[in-house]
Amino acid sequence: MQVTQASRLKNVTYDIRGPVLRRARQLETEGHEIIKLNLGNPAPFGLFAPDDVLRDVVEAIPDSQGYSDARGIQAARVAVAESFTRREVAGVGPDDVFLGNGVSELIVMSMQALLNTGDEVLVPSPDYPLWTGAVNLCGGHAVHYECVEADGWQPDLDSVADQITERTRALVIINPNNPTGAVYSREILLGLLELARTHGLLVLTDEIYDQILYEGAVHHSAAALAPDLLVLTFGGLSKTYRLAGFRSGWLVISGPREHAADYLDGLELLANMRLCPNVPAQHAIPAALGHSVGIRPLLEPGGRLRDQRDHAWQQLTSIPGISCVQPAGALYLFPRLDPEVHKITDDEQMMMDFLEQQHVLLSHGSGFNLQTTDHLRLVFLAPVTVLDDAIGRLAAFLAGYHQ
After folding, report:
1. How far apart are alpha carbons 301 and 289 in whole angstroms?
2. Where are the alpha helices (DSSP H) in 184-253?
3. Together in a domain, 142 and 263
4. What is the separation of C-alpha 283 from the centre of its chain, rounded to a whole number of angstroms?
């Protein structure tokens, strides 16, 4: 008997972990060394969490052998709630916090609780593709609104407004944005929130990179700007606290709840069905959120992430036919290949060819639900010497590449 995948997966894609990554794994098993600049995973590049955060987790292991509350341990939820109070988000307590096995699990749960077949969710283009995949997996339809490269990848409010229909249920905001590194202005956020207010949309805001900011960029919390709207804010320890493998994420509910009781009951049902998040990893949350150092020293002039961003951006934009908006936040460069210079019709194939020829793994732009094939994403977590090597190989590859 042939076993086939469920029909609901037919419209679900996650191309940035698709055929190119599978081929990279095959090349590694054949003995090739691959430079991997495809994932925002700090630990392989020597970026680790503070020792006292790890120490708290180790000390808590004897007390982590049973299930926790389905929403997560009390101390961690209190720490998250207090962090939102410091960000001037009113009315958030520990009962408004759901902990998850990473933000990814919580994104899927939020969609499972919300969507009926055919419901629409507004998602930015380009986006972190898990958002589009989760909407489609849960029977909805991801409708993409444009972010404008010439405007620093800020969302186009007219594009958002034009996409709203009677089936639209929610608006997704990714700020700072992955893959572009854009940090949205206060005016743009207020415009997005006003559209949500006018059309009665649930706001889902992915703020996992909220502390990874460069050159005076300011992150504005959507929940703080719109206390009158129901806002679900997603964050976690993966990036700022360099604990991607712990899968410690959170979802915070703010704003008026009285008209959303049924939806919130659905969220709690799904939390109960998974029993609880990983308990030992939850103990990292109070220590991390209370840590006085954080990531700031890495982002200032002379800091490792700032230097790597600057160097990689300079090297990339020195390649003929490549331009790139300098990211104000996050961990990625999203350069554009001038179609007049580099005539690329299949950017995934380009990344496959680059991997085969130069043994460097990057991500293709259309994998982030961009409608064109003229972008790629490069993670700048690696040391400068590795970035130089990889970008040098890209320049050599593009100099002779044709489709």
Report:
1. 24
2. 186-199, 222-225
3. yes
4. 23
> What does the block give as tokens for 161?
């407004």
State whether 191 and 324 are in the same domain. no
What are the Cα distances from residue 165, in Å, to 123, 131, 146, 201, 204?
A: 14, 19, 16, 11, 18
H helix count then E strand count, the chain: 15, 15
Asked whether residue 272 falls in the same domain as residue 307, the answer is no
For residue 192, is it within any domain?
yes
pTM: 0.94
In a domain, 8, yes or no: no
Asked whether 246 and 84 are in contact (CB, 8 A), the reply is no
Report the C-alpha gap between 352 and 153 in whole angstroms: 26
Residue 2 lies in a domain: no
Bridge-based pairing of strands 141-148 and 154-155 is: antiparallel
Nearest to 203 by CA among 165, 260, 156: 260
Cis peptide before 126 (omega within 30 of 0): yes
- For residue range 355-395, what is the model confidence (pLDDT) as tens digits? 999 999 999 999 999 999 999 999 999 999 999 999 999 99
Banded pLDDT at 342 (limits 50, 70, 90): very high
Provide the token pair at 78.
Answer: 């209190």
CATH number at residue 311: 3.90.1150.10
CA distance 248 to 306: 25
Whether 230 and 358 map to the same domain: the answer is no
List the structure tokens of 11.
């419209």
pLDDT tens profile 62-79: 988 999 999 999 999 999
Looking at 289, 323, 356, which one is the last position of a domain?
A: 289
Beta strand extents in 165-259 (DSSP E only)? 168-174, 202-206, 231-236, 248-254
Domain count, the chain: 2
Cβ neighbours around 384 below 10 Å, total:
15
* Domain that includes residue 374, residue range: 13-48+297-399
- Residue whose C-alpha is closest to residue 285's, from 107, 140, 71: 71
- Whether residue 186 is found in the same domain as residue 97: yes
**Distance between CA atoms of residues 142 and 140, nearest Å:** 7
